Structures are given as C-alpha cells and as structure tokens.
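Quick one: examine the sequence and fold tokens given here and explain what the tokens say about the fold. Here goes:
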Amino acid sequence: MSEWKAKRFWKTASVADAPGGFTVELDGRSVKTPAKALLVVPSHALAARIAEEWDAQGEVVDPLSMPYTRSANAAIDKVTHQHGEVAQLLADYGDADLLCYRAEGPDSLIARQKAAWDPILDWAAEVLEARLTPVTGVIHRPQSPDVLAGLSARVHAMDAFTLTAFHDLVGMSGSLILGFAALYDHKPAAEIWQLSRVDELWQAEQWGDDDEALELAAKKESDFLHAKSFHDLASRPSD
C-alpha cells in the first residue's frame, strides 16, 4: 500500500503581517505548524524564504525540500516550549568543548590543533569573556564554573529562533565556542565548519578518505550552513 502524501492545493504563497512578526499565506490562508500553531516568524526575509519553499512545491508536497519551513516549525512547536532544556543542553557543551581536548601526539596533529583552535579560544576570551583552558588527552577536566555560568547565561538569553539555529551550529560542530563564532560572524560559516573537522581532515590525510564518513560530514556541513542562514534571515531587520 503506498504512503499517503499531501498534494498541492494552492496556487501562490505570499507573505503577510501577523501579530509578532510575519506569516505565510497560501491563497490567503495562513500556514500552520504541525502542532496547529500559526506559523509566525520574526522577519520578512525569513517569511519570504519560507514562501519561496511553498511556491517551489510540485504536485506532491515534499517536506524534505523545505528546510526553512521545518526550522521555523521546530522553533515554534518545540524550542519555544522547551527553551530552558534546549538552552542548558547546548550550554553544557562548554564544559567539554571540542576545542579544549587536544591530541597527545603526533606533533603534526598537535601543531595543527593549536594553530586552528587557539585563536578561536582567544577570541572567546575577548568577545565572550570566557577563557576556556585546553587539556591534553580525552579525560574530562572541568572548566571554571564562573566561565561556564557566563556562557550559559548567553545561551539562555537567546530567543527561540536563535536557539533553534544555535542547536545545529553547536550540535553539528561539537563546540559551543564554534557555535558562538558562527553566530557572531567571527569568520565565514564555511571556515568555522572546517575548524570543527581538524581531526578528521588530519586522519584522512594519513589513511585516505572514507566514503561513508565523507557523506556524513557533507550532511552535517549542510545542516551547519543552513542553521547559520536560518539565523541570519530570522534576525534581519524588516523594513
């Protein structure tokens, strides 16, 4: 038996004003989230991108081709109602940040990690007022409680749409600091993504590429870059 799929029922998608922001209308009917909430986003730019996704649908609706719609749904239906839990989940990355756990050897990898990651930690110390301390090896060593509290406060202060983007920036990179670096435009998002892959790229140079690993990395990179784009659109001032 074939799976039921939603069919296109509208001719045009458009942006409309809504309480608290902007919504998308399909032939004048407002789009709802899967939880039946009105889809309201904070900027006209994000609403316009979502409208483009709906306009681009063929006869059968493909949710996988609508990443901005899906991210907005997540912000409204999930993150808004679980804000504290999501924020704490991400803040906890600070106590075991990827950038702080350094290889014991060989010297070439040690040098590469230092060259790639020390400048980002210096940036965090200056801009975020959070000096995280690198350690050698994989055994957990706690960071300063005061530093972690400061980082946590920044995460908890994010609105639902920013936190939705931040979830993937941190989760895909494995680093709270790299997530902040992307959010704050410290470097282009593509460069920040590469900083998260120092270890993997070094391993590939030694042993060759693995097709499955490359496919997984490409998917994570796509999600990381989308999260940055989603944040930028959501935070763009509306005329």
User: Anything to note?
Assistant: The first strand starts at residue 13 and ends at 18. Residues 157 and 228 are 18 Å apart (CA to CA). The mean pLDDT is 95. Strands lie at 13-18, 21-26, 29-30, 40-41, 101-102, 135-136.
